[in-house]
From TrEMBL:
UniProt keyword annotation of Oxidoreductase present: yes
Residues annotated as domain D-isomer specific 2-hydroxyacid dehydrogenase catalytic: 8-314
Source organism of this protein record: Flavobacterium sinopsychrotolerans
Segments forming domain D-isomer specific 2-hydroxyacid dehydrogenase NAD-binding: 107-293
GO molecular function, one term: NAD binding
Keyword Transmembrane helix (UniProt): no
CDD domains: PGDH_2
Protein name: D-3-phosphoglycerate dehydrogenase
Amino acid sequence: MKVLANDGISKSGILALEKGGFEVITTKVAQEQVANFVNENNVSVVLVRSATKVRKDIIDACPGLKIIGRGGVGMDNIDVDYAKSKGIHVINTPASSSESVAELVFAHLFSGVRFLHDSNRNMPLEGDTNFDGLKKAYANGIELRGKTLGIVGIGRIGQATAKMALGLGMKVIAADSFIPQVDVKVEFFDGQSITTTIVSQSLESLFKEADFITLHVPAQDGYIISEKELAIMKDGVGIVNCARGGVIDEVALVKALDSGKVLFAGLDVFENEPTPEMAILMNHKISLTPHIGAATGEAQDRIGTELASQIISLLS
């Protein structure tokens, strides 16, 4: 059987699939040509990340399709229920990228509290002529230790983020309408560990209490953070979104950054991917990455081998 990994797959995933008797195609097929390619090449499995969409039109056009796989957590680029109604298996890898995304959250947090995103723009331009001026501009850093991190969505990635925050000595609070409470185990290099219970609270109370806020939710019909929510947050709050674009009102965010209400934002995802608004890209208070939350070698290895394992189990 043939597997089309349209958004790529790790070498370890390819080797595992080939060992299981599958032919893996890594040719990048344009969105509008996916259905034709699948049919012409008798593809049984389509694997995607976040770029390729597998909607009703592709599902209807490809009767030979047996599995649709998403390398990652959210499956908002796949018509999951419709695919299942047609007898197609839909799989994902919810645990494989948690650590990588959580580390990126803290990359943005550290960048924000020490102005690294702006300093790295200006040091090459002015470092030799305005060193003392830049030193003064970036002198009011903030420690994360002792501060309160509000996690919106305390699933696998939220929990991984909570563990890192606890390790830094932060207070962690969470809001999740599906998980009332969770035990978070922080494990150390020598085998020791500590476990703490995080009880979910209301979004409103989280927004009022948190010094920093990180979002870990699937795509939504509306905004989780808009002008109303920003207004009740602490002055000087930091906001990170490594989840999905469209959960923050970017116009309201820029306004809050410009007014000083929000100290900084860290964005890995955007309302208009893959063409984020210029007002976002040019704002010196935003730390920016191009949707790379799961883009580490370790995460991609785990994703590839986990997808391969599920495919082999389903089709062998």
